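We close this part of the discussion by returning to an individual protein. The sequence in question and its C-alpha coordinates are set out directly beneath this paragraph:
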Amino acid sequence: VSRHRECVPKSKCEEAVKVAIEVGYRHIDGAYVYENEEAIGRAIREKIADGTVKREEIFYTGKLWSTFHTPEMVRPVLEKSLKSLQFDYIDLYIIHTPLPLKPGDDIFPVDGNGKLIFDNVDLCATWEAMEACKDAGLVKSIGVSNFNHRQLEMILNKPALKYKPVCNQVECHPYLNQRKMLEFCKSKNIVLVAYSALGSHRDERWVDQSTPLLLADPVLNTLAKKYNRSPALVAMRYQLQRGVVVLAKSYTRKHIEDNFKVFDLQLTEEDMKAIDSLNQNLRYDPLSGFLDHPEYPYADDY
Protein backbone atom coordinates (compact mmCIF):
# COMPACT_ATOMS: atom_id res chain seq x y z
CA VAL A 1 0.00 0.00 0.00
CA SER A 2 1.69 3.18 -1.11
CA ARG A 3 0.77 6.63 0.14
CA HIS A 4 1.90 9.47 -2.06
CA ARG A 5 2.10 13.03 -0.77
CA GLU A 6 -1.18 14.56 -1.85
CA CYS A 7 -4.24 16.29 -0.55
CA VAL A 8 -5.84 13.28 1.13
CA PRO A 9 -7.34 13.74 4.59
CA LYS A 10 -5.30 11.93 7.26
CA SER A 11 -8.44 10.07 8.40
CA LYS A 12 -8.81 8.59 4.91
CA CYS A 13 -5.21 7.40 4.98
CA GLU A 14 -5.67 5.89 8.44
CA GLU A 15 -8.83 4.08 7.35
CA ALA A 16 -7.17 2.73 4.18
CA VAL A 17 -4.26 1.31 6.17
CA LYS A 18 -6.63 -0.41 8.61
CA VAL A 19 -8.67 -1.91 5.73
CA ALA A 20 -5.47 -3.09 4.01
CA ILE A 21 -4.27 -4.84 7.17
CA GLU A 22 -7.69 -6.48 7.62
CA VAL A 23 -7.61 -7.71 3.99
CA GLY A 24 -4.16 -9.23 4.55
CA TYR A 25 -1.62 -6.64 3.40
CA ARG A 26 1.52 -6.55 5.51
CA HIS A 27 3.81 -4.20 3.55
CA ILE A 28 3.04 -0.51 4.05
CA ASP A 29 5.08 1.93 1.96
CA GLY A 30 5.44 5.30 3.66
CA ALA A 31 7.78 8.30 3.66
CA TYR A 32 8.59 11.38 5.68
CA VAL A 33 7.59 13.58 2.74
CA TYR A 34 4.05 12.10 2.60
CA GLU A 35 3.40 13.83 5.94
CA ASN A 36 1.10 11.07 7.17
CA GLU A 37 3.30 8.89 9.37
CA GLU A 38 1.29 9.73 12.50
CA ALA A 39 -1.92 8.49 10.82
CA ILE A 40 -0.20 5.34 9.53
CA GLY A 41 1.33 4.64 12.94
CA ARG A 42 -2.07 5.04 14.61
CA ALA A 43 -3.72 2.65 12.14
CA ILE A 44 -1.04 -0.01 12.58
CA ARG A 45 -1.03 0.31 16.38
CA GLU A 46 -4.82 -0.02 16.43
CA LYS A 47 -4.63 -3.25 14.41
CA ILE A 48 -1.94 -4.53 16.77
CA ALA A 49 -4.04 -3.60 19.81
CA ASP A 50 -7.12 -5.44 18.48
CA GLY A 51 -5.07 -8.57 17.82
CA THR A 52 -5.25 -8.52 13.99
CA VAL A 53 -1.44 -8.41 13.64
CA LYS A 54 1.75 -8.33 15.63
CA ARG A 55 4.30 -5.55 15.01
CA GLU A 56 6.79 -8.07 13.60
CA GLU A 57 4.26 -9.14 10.96
CA ILE A 58 4.09 -5.61 9.55
CA PHE A 59 6.76 -4.48 7.07
CA TYR A 60 6.93 -0.68 7.11
CA THR A 61 9.07 1.21 4.59
CA GLY A 62 10.15 4.73 5.50
CA LYS A 63 12.18 7.15 3.37
CA LEU A 64 14.90 9.70 3.96
CA TRP A 65 13.83 12.91 2.24
CA SER A 66 16.17 14.98 0.04
CA THR A 67 16.56 17.88 2.51
CA PHE A 68 18.17 15.51 5.05
CA HIS A 69 21.04 13.98 3.04
CA THR A 70 23.70 15.67 5.18
CA PRO A 71 25.10 12.74 7.21
CA GLU A 72 24.48 14.30 10.64
CA MET A 73 20.80 14.89 9.76
CA VAL A 74 20.02 11.27 8.82
CA ARG A 75 19.54 9.81 12.28
CA PRO A 76 17.60 12.76 13.78
CA VAL A 77 15.04 12.75 10.95
CA LEU A 78 14.70 8.96 11.15
CA GLU A 79 14.06 9.36 14.89
CA LYS A 80 11.42 11.95 14.03
CA SER A 81 9.66 9.37 11.80
CA LEU A 82 9.94 6.74 14.55
CA LYS A 83 8.36 9.20 16.99
CA SER A 84 5.50 10.00 14.58
CA LEU A 85 4.86 6.30 13.98
CA GLN A 86 5.51 5.45 17.65
CA PHE A 87 7.66 2.52 16.52
CA ASP A 88 10.93 1.24 17.98
CA TYR A 89 12.26 0.41 14.52
CA ILE A 90 11.47 0.72 10.82
CA ASP A 91 11.73 -2.44 8.69
CA LEU A 92 13.16 -0.78 5.60
CA TYR A 93 14.56 2.74 5.32
CA ILE A 94 15.48 4.05 1.90
CA ILE A 95 17.03 7.19 0.43
CA HIS A 96 13.97 8.68 -1.33
CA THR A 97 15.92 10.23 -4.22
CA PRO A 98 19.59 10.68 -5.13
CA LEU A 99 18.85 14.43 -5.35
CA PRO A 100 19.89 16.42 -2.28
CA LEU A 101 18.01 19.66 -1.61
CA LYS A 102 18.96 22.60 0.62
CA PRO A 103 18.77 21.37 4.23
CA GLY A 104 16.15 22.81 6.53
CA ASP A 105 12.53 22.50 7.58
CA ASP A 106 11.17 23.33 4.15
CA ILE A 107 10.42 20.06 2.31
CA PHE A 108 10.61 21.75 -1.10
CA PRO A 109 13.00 24.71 -0.64
CA VAL A 110 12.61 27.16 -3.53
CA ASP A 111 14.30 30.40 -4.55
CA GLY A 112 12.60 33.68 -5.55
CA ASN A 113 11.78 32.24 -9.00
CA GLY A 114 10.10 29.16 -7.54
CA LYS A 115 13.03 26.92 -8.56
CA LEU A 116 14.10 24.15 -6.20
CA ILE A 117 17.32 24.92 -4.30
CA PHE A 118 19.70 22.00 -4.82
CA ASP A 119 22.43 20.89 -2.47
CA ASN A 120 25.61 18.95 -3.05
CA VAL A 121 26.05 15.99 -0.70
CA ASP A 122 28.17 12.91 -1.28
CA LEU A 123 25.67 10.03 -1.55
CA CYS A 124 28.30 7.68 -0.10
CA ALA A 125 28.47 9.81 3.06
CA THR A 126 24.65 9.72 3.29
CA TRP A 127 24.84 5.95 2.87
CA GLU A 128 27.34 5.63 5.75
CA ALA A 129 24.87 7.49 7.99
CA MET A 130 22.15 5.03 6.86
CA GLU A 131 24.47 2.12 7.77
CA ALA A 132 24.96 3.64 11.23
CA CYS A 133 21.16 3.69 11.73
CA LYS A 134 21.05 -0.02 10.92
CA ASP A 135 23.91 -0.69 13.35
CA ALA A 136 22.00 1.23 16.02
CA GLY A 137 18.99 -1.09 15.51
CA LEU A 138 16.69 1.75 14.39
CA VAL A 139 16.15 0.08 10.99
CA LYS A 140 16.31 -3.55 9.92
CA SER A 141 17.28 -2.94 6.28
CA ILE A 142 18.43 -0.04 4.14
CA GLY A 143 17.98 0.69 0.46
CA VAL A 144 17.50 3.40 -2.15
CA SER A 145 14.87 4.80 -4.50
CA ASN A 146 15.00 6.53 -7.90
CA PHE A 147 18.71 5.72 -8.30
CA ASN A 148 20.15 4.92 -11.72
CA HIS A 149 22.62 2.07 -12.16
CA ARG A 150 25.63 4.43 -11.95
CA GLN A 151 24.47 5.78 -8.60
CA LEU A 152 23.85 2.25 -7.35
CA GLU A 153 27.33 1.18 -8.51
CA MET A 154 28.85 4.12 -6.66
CA ILE A 155 27.44 2.78 -3.40
CA LEU A 156 28.16 -0.87 -4.22
CA ASN A 157 31.80 0.02 -5.00
CA LYS A 158 32.23 2.32 -2.01
CA PRO A 159 35.37 1.58 0.02
CA ALA A 160 34.52 -0.06 3.37
CA LEU A 161 30.89 -0.69 2.35
CA LYS A 162 29.16 -2.32 5.33
CA TYR A 163 25.68 -3.04 3.95
CA LYS A 164 24.64 -2.92 0.34
CA PRO A 165 21.27 -1.48 -0.64
CA VAL A 166 18.64 -4.24 -0.40
CA CYS A 167 16.37 -2.55 -2.95
CA ASN A 168 15.91 0.20 -5.50
CA GLN A 169 12.35 1.54 -5.59
CA VAL A 170 11.58 3.02 -9.02
CA GLU A 171 8.68 3.91 -11.29
CA CYS A 172 7.96 0.69 -13.15
CA HIS A 173 4.95 -0.46 -15.21
CA PRO A 174 4.32 -1.94 -18.69
CA TYR A 175 4.99 1.45 -20.36
CA LEU A 176 8.30 1.76 -18.43
CA ASN A 177 9.31 -1.80 -17.75
CA GLN A 178 12.84 -1.04 -16.50
CA ARG A 179 14.23 -4.20 -18.13
CA LYS A 180 17.87 -3.08 -17.92
CA MET A 181 17.54 -1.87 -14.34
CA LEU A 182 15.84 -5.14 -13.38
CA GLU A 183 18.65 -7.19 -14.96
CA PHE A 184 21.24 -5.03 -13.22
CA CYS A 185 19.52 -5.33 -9.83
CA LYS A 186 19.09 -9.09 -10.16
CA SER A 187 22.80 -9.44 -10.99
CA LYS A 188 23.63 -7.59 -7.76
CA ASN A 189 20.99 -9.36 -5.67
CA ILE A 190 19.05 -6.12 -5.18
CA VAL A 191 15.24 -6.19 -5.17
CA LEU A 192 13.50 -3.91 -7.66
CA VAL A 193 10.40 -2.36 -6.07
CA ALA A 194 7.85 -0.83 -8.46
CA TYR A 195 5.92 2.33 -7.68
CA SER A 196 3.25 3.67 -10.06
CA ALA A 197 2.88 0.01 -11.05
CA LEU A 198 -0.61 0.78 -12.39
CA GLY A 199 0.53 3.84 -14.28
CA SER A 200 -0.11 6.77 -12.06
CA HIS A 201 -2.69 8.64 -10.05
CA ARG A 202 -2.17 11.42 -12.58
CA ASP A 203 -1.73 14.20 -10.07
CA GLU A 204 -1.74 17.38 -12.17
CA ARG A 205 1.16 18.74 -10.16
CA TRP A 206 3.62 16.21 -11.58
CA VAL A 207 1.96 14.21 -14.36
CA ASP A 208 1.57 15.44 -17.93
CA GLN A 209 -2.16 15.03 -18.52
CA SER A 210 -1.64 14.16 -22.19
CA THR A 211 0.17 10.90 -21.35
CA PRO A 212 -1.74 7.71 -22.22
CA LEU A 213 -3.69 5.96 -19.49
CA LEU A 214 -1.94 2.66 -18.79
CA LEU A 215 -5.04 0.85 -17.57
CA ALA A 216 -6.88 1.74 -20.78
CA ASP A 217 -4.25 -0.11 -22.83
CA PRO A 218 -5.89 -2.52 -25.36
CA VAL A 219 -3.38 -5.35 -24.72
CA LEU A 220 -3.92 -5.20 -20.95
CA ASN A 221 -7.67 -5.08 -21.49
CA THR A 222 -7.65 -8.06 -23.85
CA LEU A 223 -5.69 -10.06 -21.28
CA ALA A 224 -8.00 -8.87 -18.51
CA LYS A 225 -10.96 -10.29 -20.45
CA LYS A 226 -9.09 -13.53 -21.13
CA TYR A 227 -8.43 -14.08 -17.41
CA ASN A 228 -11.64 -12.46 -16.20
CA ARG A 229 -9.63 -10.04 -14.07
CA SER A 230 -9.06 -6.27 -14.06
CA PRO A 231 -6.33 -4.68 -16.20
CA ALA A 232 -4.78 -3.54 -12.90
CA LEU A 233 -4.39 -7.14 -11.73
CA VAL A 234 -2.79 -8.12 -15.05
CA ALA A 235 -0.30 -5.23 -14.75
CA MET A 236 0.58 -6.24 -11.17
CA ARG A 237 0.83 -9.94 -11.96
CA TYR A 238 3.24 -9.10 -14.79
CA GLN A 239 5.57 -7.51 -12.24
CA LEU A 240 5.37 -10.35 -9.74
CA GLN A 241 6.26 -12.90 -12.42
CA ARG A 242 9.34 -10.85 -13.35
CA GLY A 243 10.49 -10.89 -9.72
CA VAL A 244 9.50 -7.28 -9.00
CA VAL A 245 7.91 -6.21 -5.70
CA VAL A 246 4.75 -4.22 -6.44
CA LEU A 247 3.35 -1.22 -4.61
CA ALA A 248 -0.27 -0.38 -5.41
CA LYS A 249 -2.05 2.58 -3.96
CA SER A 250 -5.73 2.72 -3.19
CA TYR A 251 -8.12 4.24 -0.69
CA THR A 252 -11.21 2.16 -1.49
CA ARG A 253 -11.93 -1.17 0.17
CA LYS A 254 -13.04 -2.72 -3.13
CA HIS A 255 -9.75 -1.90 -4.89
CA ILE A 256 -7.70 -2.89 -1.86
CA GLU A 257 -9.48 -6.27 -1.82
CA ASP A 258 -9.26 -6.69 -5.61
CA ASN A 259 -5.54 -5.97 -5.70
CA PHE A 260 -4.96 -8.76 -3.20
CA LYS A 261 -6.25 -11.31 -5.75
CA VAL A 262 -3.03 -10.96 -7.72
CA PHE A 263 -1.84 -14.29 -6.30
CA ASP A 264 -4.51 -16.45 -7.94
CA LEU A 265 -3.53 -15.54 -11.47
CA GLN A 266 -0.76 -16.92 -13.69
CA LEU A 267 0.15 -15.27 -17.01
CA THR A 268 1.59 -17.41 -19.82
CA GLU A 269 5.00 -16.69 -21.31
CA GLU A 270 3.28 -15.38 -24.44
CA ASP A 271 1.18 -12.97 -22.38
CA MET A 272 4.31 -11.82 -20.55
CA LYS A 273 6.00 -11.12 -23.91
CA ALA A 274 2.95 -9.23 -25.13
CA ILE A 275 3.11 -6.99 -22.05
CA ASP A 276 6.90 -6.61 -22.47
CA SER A 277 6.29 -5.22 -25.95
CA LEU A 278 4.24 -2.33 -24.52
CA ASN A 279 7.37 -0.63 -23.19
CA GLN A 280 7.81 2.93 -24.44
CA ASN A 281 10.06 4.30 -21.69
CA LEU A 282 7.23 6.54 -20.55
CA ARG A 283 7.81 8.19 -17.19
CA TYR A 284 4.67 9.56 -15.58
CA ASP A 285 6.82 11.33 -13.00
CA PRO A 286 10.10 12.49 -14.59
CA LEU A 287 10.96 14.58 -11.49
CA SER A 288 10.84 17.61 -13.76
CA GLY A 289 11.71 20.08 -10.97
CA PHE A 290 15.08 18.33 -10.70
CA LEU A 291 16.06 18.30 -14.40
CA ASP A 292 19.07 20.59 -13.82
CA HIS A 293 20.24 18.74 -10.71
CA PRO A 294 23.81 17.40 -11.10
CA GLU A 295 22.58 14.03 -9.79
CA TYR A 296 19.44 13.88 -12.01
CA PRO A 297 19.08 10.10 -12.47
CA TYR A 298 17.11 9.75 -15.68
CA ALA A 299 19.59 11.24 -18.13
CA ASP A 300 21.27 7.81 -18.17
CA ASP A 301 19.88 4.91 -20.18
CA TYR A 302 18.95 3.18 -16.89
Summary: Strands lie at 27-29, 59-64, 90-95, 139-145, 167-171, 191-195, 245-246. The CA atoms of residues 57 and 291 lie 39 Å apart.
